[in-house]
Design goal:
It is a single chain. The protein has three helices and no strands. By secondary structure, it is mostly helical. α1 runs antiparallel to α2. The relative contact order is 0.07.
Length: about 90
């Protein structure tokens, strides 16, 4: 799924660059506004990728923290051992 999102963003960026290049060929006087527009679009795409990346990092840190909490709990360890050994759980 991640590679699909990156591929779509890359294709959109390439299309925008081609569109801006074609526009600049037909209207040289608008070159500055085209460059500003391209920069703004690429900035928005970069911000979106960074926000998605930071969300994924926060999710990974949460899962790691949750796993550490479970591993440090003796109650959870004893419950897990009982489940593995097919023992009855009476607690």
């Amino acid at each position: 799924m991640k590679s699909k999102n990156y591929r779509i963003a890359f294709i959109i960026s390439i299309l925008l660059i081609v569109l801006c290049a074609l526009t600049s060929v037909f209207s040289i006087t608008r070159m500055q506004s085209i460059i500003v527009s391209m920069t703004a679009v690429l900035g928005v795409v970069a911000i979106w990728f960074e926000m998605k990346r930071s969300k994924d990092m926060a999710e990974g840190e949460f899962i790691t923290s949750l796993n550490q909490n479970f591993l440090s709990s003796e109650d959870v360890k004893s419950l897990y051992k009982k489940l593995i050994n097919n023992e009855t759980i009476t607690e």
